[in-house]
Amino acid sequence: MERSEKDKMLAGELYHPSAPELQVELEACAAWLARYNAAMGEPAPVWHRLLQERLGAVGEHAMLRPPFYCDYGFNIRVGANVFMNYNCVILDTALVTIGDDTRIGPAVQIYTADHPHDPALRRSGLEQGVAVTIGKNVWIGGGAIVLPGVTIGDDAIVGAGSVVTRDVPAGATVVGNPAKVVNG
């Protein structure tokens, strides 16, 4: 039996993002995002309940300030006491894990969606997801971008506007484009 495009996506294999089954998931997430982002004037407990409806896991006292944007939602795991500021984007075609006590500034973008480097394969419309893991007690400054496959270790700091193209060791501070370790 042939595997579904969603199963391929979740396994980190090449898949067709335009498959009807994935379009249904994207539409469901878009409807949820409309409700979530419309709740901007509501108190934080309302946001938390809405997050629990769609995200894969939501720790106690996690706060993602609307507006917030994602592809699917169910691939996002947010730990306890996570704070994510306004206008963040998570392209969650693969698992995104954000550890407890992490702080994420406004307009941060976290990407798991990746495209083939081979031009013919890329032309075919295939893509794949590569998981992103952000440790505990991490601080990601506003406007930073985290690329597919990156792991950011516990207690690390990512400077505002940085583009994180490779793993960040625990306790390190990285800045720039591409982000480079400046201490730790």
UniProtKB/TrEMBL annotation:
Keywords: Acyltransferase, Repeat, Transferase. Residues 6-60 form the Maltose/galactoside acetyltransferase domain. SUPFAM superfamilies: Trimeric LpxA-like enzymes. The keyword Kinase does not apply. SMART domains: Mac. CDD domains: LbH_MAT_GAT (cd03357). Its EC number is 2.3.1.-. Pfam families: Hexapep, Mac. One of its GO terms (molecular function) is acyltransferase activity. Coiled coil: none annotated. It is an enzyme of class 2 (transferase). Belongs to the transferase hexapeptide repeat family. This is Sugar O-acetyltransferase. It comes from Massilia suwonensis.
